Amino acid sequence: MNATRKVGLVGWGAIGRVxxxxxxxxxxxGAELVCVVxxxxxxxxxxxxxxxxxxxxxxxxxxxxxxxxxxxxEWGERVLASGTDLLIASTGALTDEELAERLLAAxxxxxxxxxxxxxxxxxxxxxxxxxxxxxxxxxxxxxxATLEQPxxxxxxxxxxxxxxxxxxxxxxxxxxxxxxxxxxxxxxxSVALAVGDLDTVRVQVVADxxxxxxxxxxxxxxxxxAYRFEVAHLPDxxxxxxxxxxxxxxxxxxxxxxxxxxxxx
Length: 265
Ligand SMILES: NC(=O)C1=CN([C@@H]2O[C@H](COP(=O)(O)OP(=O)(O)OC[C@H]3O[C@@H](n4cnc5c(N)ncnc54)[C@H](OP(=O)(O)O)[C@@H]3O)[C@@H](O)[C@H]2O)C=CC1
Ligand SMILES: O=C([O-])CC(=O)C(=O)O
Known about the structure:
Elements: E1 5-10, H1 14-24, E2 31-37, H2 53-59, E3 62-65, H3 69-81, E4 85-88, H4 97-105, E5 111-113, H5 121-127, E6 135-142, H6 154-161, E7 167-173, H7 177-180, H8 186-195, E8 201-207, E9 214-222, E10 225-233, H9 246-257
Parallel strand pairs: 1-2, 1-3, 3-4, 4-5, 6-8
Antiparallel strand pairs: 6-9, 7-8, 9-10
Helix pairs in contact: 1-9, 5-8
Oxaloacetate ion binds at residues 117, 183-187, 214, 233, 241-243, 246.
């Protein structure tokens, strides 16, 4: 029988609260919440002790990152080098290819990525074994306020704020888009991780004041076939940049890591 996974959760926000509560209520057989790490003092708000990152590494064998790309950059290698596994939500950090290579080579802990807000990544990863895809496109449509960034000039901000219908905010590749929208377009890096190339994945970011649902459309084609995955998620009410489904994707990843039988892999 597998030992119970001792989980340290980094980030007590839209994703972390749902994941941490489910773990504390023993809703993931084979996994227990040992501690929470967050920038803010959580007081009695968290269902497990709030610890420093170093303390978490001493007590846990699996760290769940639900905090931001900076945590992956700052802590990823140390987590893995300590022998602790790491489940990453902020896949956008992997647009730094040197970091990505180091994380994939690090150990003895193992690094995993949650599918997060997009679907079809398992199939795209399988298709890759048949040969490279010719074309991969991701179109992400979100509420304008969730896409505002400090680097935007007044003209672009005004275009976002006065939009009455869908407007393209930026187009690029999975190499540059998750850097520009670090809390909102990790999905682009996730698609790139599945297909194995940042530059092949063309990304269009669209702001739409009518986007009651966040949409991600992944279209891919190659000599072996054509693939299209479209999702429309309700945003998290407290943090509309994040889709409501994301913590449940993390919980599903955790269930697989905890060895639950009957999982679709
Ligand atoms: N793969 C995917 O599909 C998706 C990935 N994500 C990723 O997940 C991240 C978390 O999402 P979400 O829960 O919605 O974000 P929230 O902003 O709601 O919560 C993040 C929490 O983590 C804390 N935090 C940030 N940096 C650190 C740090 N260095 N050390 C400790 N705590 C920290 C934040 O505190 P403070 O606010 O004080 O910084 C905040 O409490 C996003 O930033 C994004 O990168 C999100 C959605 C989808
Ligand atoms: O939750 C979503 O729909 C996507 C998201 O924020 C991200 O990819 O960072």
